[in-house]
Q: What sequence folds into this?
């Protein structure tokens, strides 16, 4: 699986399964790329270490649902 397939997989999982709307992916360095949800700010990342060929995905955007109601409520109280 190449980098583009990993990005597409992360996007699909975050958006379809968790309701997040990820923004642009940013290269933190050669082995770490990250994106933030445009709605709640949770992060998704792609990383690989050493000589690994396969990228791993993770981040709080993959672990939690994007609760738009919570985001709107936080904005209203700020």
A:
């Amino acid at each position: 699986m190449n980098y583009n397939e990993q990005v597409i997989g992360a996007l699909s999982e975050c958006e379809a399964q968790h309701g997040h709307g990820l923004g642009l992916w940013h290269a933190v360095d050669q082995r770490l790329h990250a994106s933030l949800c445009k709605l709640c700010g949770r992060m998704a990342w792609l990383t690989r270490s050493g000589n690994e060929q396969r990228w791993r995905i993770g981040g709080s955007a993959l672990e939690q649902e994007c609760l738009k109601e919570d985001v709107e409520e936080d904005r209203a109280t700020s």
